[in-house]
Amino acid sequence: MSPKAASDPDVQELDVRGMRKLDKHPRIFATYAALPVGAAFVLVNDHDPQHLHEEFETDHAGSYRWEYLNREMRDWRIQITKLAGTSLPRVLADTTTFTADTTAADVTGAVWKLQTRERDLDANVIALPPGQAIDAHTGPDLDVLVHVLAGSGQLTTELGTIELTPGVLLWMPRRSRRQFTAGVEGLRYLTVHQRRQALLLDTSRARTPQ
After folding, report:
1. Angle CA 83–87–90, to nearest 5
2. Helix 21-33 with 50-60: angle, nearest 10 deg
3. How many other C-beta atoms lie within 10 A of the C-beta of residue 81?
4. pLDDT tens, 16-75?
């Protein structure tokens, strides 16, 4: 289906200039979600919505069209067209870029996160400098997959330890006890799990073993 032109009377116009800032983006994304494939709406705003454009790129890269129709002061008009029924599969990152300089002492915690708003999964790349640890704790009420990307370390469980080396794919059952400790090379690993509001690992508790 060919996208409708802005002059088409069937193209909806959404004027958000009088809305509260908090309400604008949810209304815009709800309008976009309701579009059939090939349809469009014209967004009317009082400024260039660059942050909104960045959110569209995060959530819908390649599956929408963003066209400026007018750029006058307090009368910015952008036609947003839905090109596909869902967000498209795409490359989010190259994990080989996370393997460099694992010994950096000032790089701790999540160095990459899955950012799309509408998702069922959470994913993070966690970095621990050499010798640092995430204190022993009981995991959340969900299963977690861990893929070691670089460096080395140990996972201390309720009954023993597991050596962590690049390539290891680890399953952590829900509510299992765990403590991560980085080796002399530091440690970086990818975690994937069902989406939840709280952080999987509180890296603010990372410490250097005595």
Report:
1. 110
2. 40
3. 21
4. 999 999 999 999 999 999 999 999 999 999 999 999 999 999 999 999 999 999 999 999
